[in-house]
Write a structure and sequence with these properties.
The chain is an alpha/beta fold. It has 16 helices and 13 strands.
Length: 423
């Protein structure tokens, strides 16, 4: 397979170079991610033109493979043999879990004849059906909404930048064909799904509302077989509204009329479908009054607005600018850690209200990060960071305040204020 570069017209994705290299390896490849994160577009840009493509999002195709389980094997065996593997791409593979058994049978019979690439937007159905996830045979990949390197800010970077968690382009990977630059207001208003970023401004809110209606509602109903659909919709709206906050299962159970175990199960469903993730509380402090309850973040701000029943747009963003800015930074840090494949992200809060928005744990180092919706940070904004540095002198050497200042500022000997656009 010639994977030296993506196809013309393809906008650069950070994970493309890594995926391109790994696709050369003689394993089955499974790419997970929420709908509309660009999984199919990325794979279509990397796979050869003669790839056998099976789209199980298509009802007719899905029905065919459900009613004729041998269809997949026969189609693969009909591909002519060659000097290099023949590529087989199955989109939305979780819709027919038996496909995984077919892949294993063919792969075990001849590891070099085919290169199977499966794509999915839900791990829930695969787990529930007991699907074969091909242990020992598969590389598992994930794709997320855009990171800032894929959609650079309109501001020019300063001559130097001391990011708490840099994510440079892979060596030799061109970064010129990036997505349109957006100012902070648009990022908070519409999120970072590739299709939304590329859409005309007048269409973005409708696309996100459609995502919430057609995907978050209909797909989840089909996936989870939710019994009380009205209560689930109330849960979905509340979960989106509370995105970024400390989880309060009891309060949401009261509001929705659902039991506590059901609320927890619904949150797990959102995780399984890559709609959100748990942000655990930091537990490595000597303080006795730490909160241990996690926070939950929706994977994209635009989807969060639509799921919460709000109209995605700059008016919605302005009404909650500080909270959304904090979530945007958290989402960016989390996505970078996922792509790097190491490190963890936490938050810290005490019962008396002392808080550090994010704590990056990487290679035994701790990097505390505060987020403030201000253009003029001062020493008062850094008080919790100073406390954290004093409590962890061996592991935490430097702290960061992400804000809207115009250039990097040194606020303390070990605390730097960074403009969001050089994060």
């Amino acid at each position: 397979m010639n994977t030296s570069s993506a196809k013309p017209g393809f906008l650069a994705r950070w994970y493309a170079a890594t995926l391109r290299a790994k696709l050369e390896r003689p394993f089955v490849h499974i790419l997970f991610g929420a709908r509309q994160t660009g999984k199919s577009t990325l794979l279509n840009s990397l796979l050869p033109a003669d790839t056998l493509c099976i789209n199980l999002a298509d009802p007719a195709e899905r029905s065919l493979h459900h009613s004729h389980p041998d269809e997949f094997r026969r189609a693969c065996q009909a591909l002519p043999r060659g000097d290099s593997p023949r590529h087989v791409f199955v989109d939305e593979a979780q819709n027919v879990p038996a496909i995984f058994d077919g892949v294993q049978s063919l792969y075990d019979g001849d590891k070099r004849r085919w290169r199977f690439v499966l794509c999915g937007s839900s791990a829930r159905r695969l787990r529930q059906s007991g699907a074969n996830l091909l242990p020992g045979r598969a590389f598992v990949h994930h794709l997320y909404p855009l990171v800032m390197s894929e959609q650079p800010p309109p501001n020019s970077n300063p001559a130097w930048s001391d990011s708490p968690l840099p994510l440079p382009w892979p060596k030799g990977e061109p970064s010129a064909a990036t997505f349109p630059p957006w100012p902070i207001e648009q990022r908070l208003a519409y999120g970072a799904l590739p299709g939304v970023v590329l859409a005309e401004a007048r269409d973005r809110a409708d696309i996100l509302k459609g995502f919430a209606m057609a995907y978050l509602e209909e797909e989840i109903r089909r996936e989870a077989l939710v019994k009380d659909w009205a209560a689930f919709l109330r849960f979905l709206c509340l979960a989106a509204s509370e995105s970024g906050n400390v989880l309060n299962y009891s309060a949401i159970a009261r509001e929705t009329g659902l039991s506590l175990p059901t609320v927890k199960s619904h949150y797990q469903l959102l995780e399984d479908m890559f709609i959100g993730f748990i942000l655990p509380a930091f537990s490595g402090s000597s303080r006795k009054n730490l909160l241990s309850t996690p926070r939950f973040l929706f994977f994209d701000l635009g989807v969060r607005h639509a799921a919460a029943g709000l109209t995605p747009g700059e008016e919605t963003a302005r009404a909650q600018a500080g909270a959304l800015f904090e979530q945007m930074v958290g989402l960016e840090l989390w996505k970078r850690l996922q792509y790097q494949g190491s490190g963890r992200l936490h938050y810290l809060r005490t019962e008396d209200g002392s808080e550090v928005d994010y704590v990056i744990e990487l290679d035994r180092r701790l990097i505390p990060v505060e987020v403030k919706w201000t253009e003029h940070p001062n020493s008062h904004d850094t008080r919790h960071l100073r406390t954290f540095l004093k409590e962890h002198p061996g592991r935490a050497k430097h702290a960061y305040l992400i804000c809207r200042c115009h250039r990097p500022l040194q606020l303390d000997e070990a605390i730097t204020a960074l403009p969001w656009h050089v994060l």
